[in-house]
Amino acid sequence: MKTLSLSALLLCVMCVLVMMNLSFGAVSLTFNDLLSGFQPTSEFYFTIHEYRLPRTLLAMLVGGMMALSGTLVQGVIRNPLASPDVLGVSHGAGLAAVLLMTLYPDVSVYWLPWTALCGGLLAALVLWLLCGSHSSAIKLAITGIALATLYGSLVDFLMLTRPLEINNALLWLTGSLWGRGWDQVTMILPWLILVPVAFWLAKRINLVQLGDDVATSLGVSIPVTRLAVLAIAVGMTAACVSICGPIGFLGLVAPHLARRLVGGRHQILLPCAILVGMTLLLLADLVARTIDPPIELPAGIMTAILGAPYFLWLLFRTK
Amino acid sequence: MKSFLQKLPFLGQCIALSFLLCVFAWLSLFTWSIIPISGTQALSALTSPNPNNIAHRIILDLRLPRVLIAGTVGACLAVAGAIMQGLTRNPLASPSVLGVNAGAALGMATVSTVAPWLGVFGTSVAAIIGGAITWSLVMILGTAWRGGNEHGRLVLAGVAISALCAALTKAMIMLYEDQAVGVMTWLAGSVADARWSDWQPLWPMALFGLSAAFLVGPTLNLLNLGEDSARSLGVKLGLVRMICSVLVLILVGAALSAAGAIAFVGLLVPHIARALTGQDYRKILPLTAIMGATLVVLADVVSRAIIFPMETPAGAIIALIGAPFFIYMVRSKTS
Fold this sequence. Notes:
Chain A: It is a multi-pass membrane protein. Chain A: It comes from Marinomonas pontica. Chain A: The chain crosses the membrane at residues 57-77, 86-104, 110-130, 137-161, 181-202, 227-248, 268-288, 295-316. The complex is a heterodimer of chains A (319) and B (335). Chain A is an all-alpha fold and 319 residues long. Chain A is 74% helix and 0% strand. Chain A has a single domain (57-314), classed as ABC transporter involved in vitamin B12 uptake, BtuC. Chain A is built from 15 helices and no strands. The longest helix of chain A is centred in the first third of the chain and has 33 residues, at 45-77. The two termini of chain A are 33 Å apart. Chain B has a single domain, classed as ABC transporter involved in vitamin B12 uptake, BtuC. Chain B contains 14 helices and no strands. In chain B, helix 4 (54-88) runs antiparallel to helix 11 and helix 4 packs across helix 12 (265-277).
């Protein structure tokens, strides 16, 4: 009952945020303008249909997928500090995408998600090779962050040696939703197919949480489950990164908030984490857009300002 | 090369490394210039300057302050890293990893965007205050003073605070400035725009910080024995930590206000110095200063060469060497 009412509340908050995202910005619209704005005859049709609606949708999709992949990673590695961006997967995917953009500027953007996916998988593989499966929570996190630093400095280097497109690339890399439209929404839609697969695996993730021995004796193949879940998480992260760059700390914070709200059962936790992620990114993007219009801050900056203190608090509590 | 240096007595090492520094500084004076300058011209500009000679003007007005600032900044950051490693007994400690750089950058960005009338002195003070706040936060959150095997936690606390400060800095800069390129260059750390006006506030702070750092060397040696032994040998732990922290902040603040946030010098160089002389901080600190200067001067030369005639920030070059080293250190030093 508590879970149900909490989810309903979360949905309400999210709907309010969606409305606010659609109505506030460089031009603020009233509620009536907003409703009539969906008709092609309205003067605000262009603003809403071409700018705010795709952007809001994208914030929901990306926020939800980032949160989901964070929950999956934390679920199977049993490490409260893990998330795709802490483990360097986001930055690996970002590096691959930047490499593609700088080395082959003429290639179609539809290759970006796939390149990012390769980069993310490679980054995950490198981390796995360096750490193995028996590292402590802190060592895994710190190796991941060291790798992320390396990828980040490579990206910086690439961008600084090709300064012409740096303004655009900088906005892209700090995790911004600026200038994204229907193209990007259609690019990310196919990846939603991974969401039901993740839900299907929820029960196994619950068993993995019990510990390797217990899970094995209950008939769950630990390596297969872990590999499948991590692959899904990396895939979703890469898709998000190729659309709007690494949005820091979202995949770390959302699962923790969701777990505090509804507990650790993944059948409920996964949908709840998606809702929390959507809400957080909608909020971050709203604040980033409206803080000083028409200047826009990247939403990734807002999530970092929210998420970094939370990470510190987690670190303080982790034994 | 390394084993040859290791066998030399300490004074010999100092002389050999200083010679290397002088060679790189000399190279930095004349190489990769749009107007061709020869090596002998570089020397004659220093000994008998002729204001009508264009090569001499370039060397004296542009290249010389650049080399001096690069060297001083490198020495400051490297010594700050060595002091931090001695103080926390954590091999991963350094101004960039523990968030002092990011905090100082945030302080500077705040002052230069919100209150630009405070001028150069104001930004330096803001850098020191910003660095001090993050340094104390990291220390409290990472529970560093308890020492022991908490290497990783301290670093993670530093990384998180760095991320927070970096986000705030970027937000502030984007709200107030138009050009992202300049900001990126500054955040990566560059000495390309160094002039004599930057040298004026840098050298007194650097001179004071470096000479005071050499004086705390013996105390750092005692600290390395462990807290209890140090205390029983008469070291006032609170006072020493206070003084060392202030020194670190002065050094980092001076370096940042002159050249931006050059990362990894403070992590990389003390370890090389330790490999050369062992654990004695009386020897590590001078060697660290010389090698830090050499590294940044060298990186500056490379940064001009890499996409000549354009400039890459020297900090970006050092990060390419420093980040893999950071991974290596994490692998070998955390459990």
